[in-house]
Amino acid sequence: MIDGFLVLADSASTDKGSGKVHMLGAGWSLTGPKVPPSAVAGFLRIPWDEVGDQIKFRLRLLTRDREEVRVLDETGQNRAPQFEGILALQQVQPADELSRQIPLNLSFALSIPPLPLLAGRVYQWALDVGGIEVATVDFAVRPESLASDESPDNEARAAE
C-alpha cells in the first residue's frame, strides 16, 4: 500500500536531479486572513511490488466537513482548486536486495496561488494516488477580527 504525507510551506520546489524537495517556511497550519501564495510538498513511500512506470495523483482542497471547496477564478468561473498529474518513474529498480527492503521514496512540490478562502474556517488538502486517498493536511484561515487584534499596535498597547 502506498503511504504518504503532506507539508504546507511558504514556498517549495523539487530538485529534478535528486528528487529532493527544498522548502521555505515549512510546517505551518495557520494562515491569513488573506491567504498568500504557498506550496504543498508531498512525500510518498511506495512498496517495490507497487512501483510502475507512472503514478497518477490528484491534490484536492476540502472543507472541514470534507466538501469540495469552490472559488471564483480570475475569469469569474466557479471552480474547485485541485491539481492533477502523473509522477513518472523512469525504469526505477532497487540497486540491491537491501534497497528492496525499504519502500521507494518519491517527493514533489506544488505551488499554490493565493486563494480567496473564507476567514475563520478550517480546510484540508487531500492527496489521492491511483484514486485512493493516501495523505491529508489541515490548515485554518485566521478570522479577520483575530488578525486585527494581533497587530503590532495592539500588542504594544497590551504591554503598556
The total of helices stands at 3
Question: Count the strands?
Answer: 12
Give the strand content.
Answer: over 45%
Biggest sheet statistics: 5 strands, mixed
Task: Please state the structural category.
Answer: mainly beta
| CATH topology assignment | Immunoglobulin-like
**If strands are numbered along the chain, what order do they take across the biggest sheet?**
4-12-11-6-9
Helix content: 10-25%
Mean pLDDT: 87
- Please state the second-level CATH architecture: Sandwich
Tell me the quaternary state.
single chain
* CA-based gyration radius: 19 Å
Shape annotation: elongated
Q: Tell me the span between the first and last alpha carbons.
A: 57 Å
Low-confidence stretches: 151-160
Fold and architecture overview:
It contains three helices and twelve strands. With 160 residues, it is mainly beta. A five-stranded mixed sheet has the order 4-12-11-6-9, with no helix packed on it. Strands 1-5-10 form a three-stranded antiparallel sheet, with no helix packed on it. A two-stranded antiparallel sheet has the order 2-3. Strand 7 (71-72) and strand 8 (78-79) form a beta hairpin. The protein is elongated. 16% of the residues are buried.
